[in-house]
Specification:
Length: about 150
């Protein structure tokens, strides 16, 4: 690739470039986890990592090369990366999931047709429990932790 001097960027261009490349870098982190064998298994969410050894090596090589380009762009364009705070990310995801879970209440499920008899009595209390627990997750990360910040 031909080396050229980067132009002076305005703040809006810098922010736009930084935002997009930060999202790319975040995706690379996830790709790297899969290339290193990640397979998450939970109750309903499961990953099947069928990547071959050759695919894993190829992914890791491309990730390494992409990160070299990202480092160069970061340095040359004076980009602003983002630091994702785990507590804020958990709070945001729990809050967003809360709205999706509420949509599982039987009154909302009518959009798919009349729910079967007994579904409301069975599902609605469990939905309410899940919503309450998502609220507790959001609340747990909203409180200042003495372990995280001893000041």
């Amino acid at each position: 690739m031909k080396r050229t001097q980067p132009p002076k960027l305005g703040e809006f261009h810098r922010r736009g470039i930084s935002t997009t490349l930060t999202v790319v870098d975040e995706a690379l982190c996830e790709f790297e986890q899969w290339a290193k064998g990640r397979e998450t298994r939970s109750v309903l969410h499961r990953e099947r990592n069928t990547l071959s050894a050759a695919q894993r090596r190829a992914l890791l090589a491309q990730i390494r090369d992409m990160r070299a380009v990202l480092r160069e762009l970061d340095h040359e364009l004076d980009l602003e990366g983002a630091v994702q705070d785990a507590a804020r990310a958990i709070w945001a995801k729990a809050s967003a999931l809360r709205e999706h879970v509420i949509e599982l209440e039987s009154r909302h499920l009518r959009r798919y047709g009349q729910p079967p008899t007994g579904l409301a009595e069975y599902l609605d209390p469990r939905v309410a429990d899940l919503v309450k627990r998502l609220d507790r997750i959001a609340s747990a990360v909203s409180e200042r932790s003495e372990e995280a910040d001893p000041s």
